[in-house]
Amino acid sequence: MLLNAQPVEILNVHLKAGCSEGDDAEACSTLFEQIPYLTAYAASQNDKGIPILIGGDFNRRLSQRGDEAMNTLGFNEQLGLKIMSHEGVSKCSLQDKAAIDYQIVSQSFTDLTKSVDAYEYAFTGPFENWPSDHCPNVVKYNF
Fold first, then answer.
1. Count of Cβ atoms closer than 10 Å to residue 6 Cβ
2. CATH number of the domain encompassing residue 92
3. Are 29 and 37 in contact (CB under 8 A)?
4. What Rg value do the Cα atoms of the chain yield, rounded?
5. Helix, strand, coil percentages for the chain (3-state, nearest 5)
6. How far apart are CA 102 and CA 84, in angstroms?
7. What is the domain extent for residue 73?
8. In the structure, what pLDDT confidence band is assigned to residue 78 with cuts at 50, 70 and 90?
9. What Gene3D superfamilies does the record tag this protein with (predicted)?
């Protein structure tokens, strides 16, 4: 995608479910194999001078303090990967758990933005009528 003649990479992900926190669940080995590939891809785009936005279902509560997966994603300070979407308790979590869907951007992407407005869209009515147990994350970027 081009943004003001600047190439920008947008990547949608759906990582392994079953490892939303910690590292001892059976699914964690797969999720922790996926994270370095994601980080390497973001680094390769950064090396080419291409800002990157990674969004989707990470199936992980990345916003929790000290989360190992987010620490791995953010280990490369040059990339400056950070969460731009809603980081608190998900309005679609019946157990008051943090969200598992995010938008993460590189520092070079952040540098392109003038302002960001992020929120989680909440469904209404009884849970049984909701279209999903994932609330959509809405992030409005002003360039």
1. 14
2. 3.60.10.10
3. no
4. 15
5. 25, 25, 50
6. 7
7. 2-142
8. confident
9. Endonuclease/exonuclease/phosphatase (3.60.10.10)
